[in-house]
Amino acid sequence: MKPVLVYLTLIFMLFACKRKNKKITYIRKKTNPIIQIQFERTACYGKCPVFKLTLNPNGTADFEGIKYVKFIGKGSAIIPVNVFQNLKQKLDSMDVRNLKSEYSVNVTDNPTGYLSILFEDFSVKNIKDYGLRGTPELKQVYKQLTDLAKQTQWKSIENEK
Q: Using an 8 Å Cβ cutoff, are 111 and 77 in contact?
């Protein structure tokens, strides 16, 4: 009886350990490319730059300088495509869609930043940030956009209609 019991145990172990061929399915994260970045800065009690900026993936950029920027009025420019791509990568890496829609600091005399990201499916992520300190990554994006707005040579479009 013992040899039969050992034999049955071995057979049971073989079938119990038999590896089933399960098909492994990888779920690919659906990407939804960014097709436009808009950024607006409002005034503070000092000399904060006040402007509106729109960037497109083809390098076209629109600007409206309102206060405390070199270019006052509506303008446009062609920026290097890699500038948009760099910003897009930063926004993608921070998973901008899942960031909070509003950030704020508990002090006065700060500008507000409005960041709007337009995706390929025409959905929009809007972020309102009083104090421009939402997350460390957002601070970098705000700085890059502000520097771009200040340093670009804008061509006036006021009289072109």
A: no
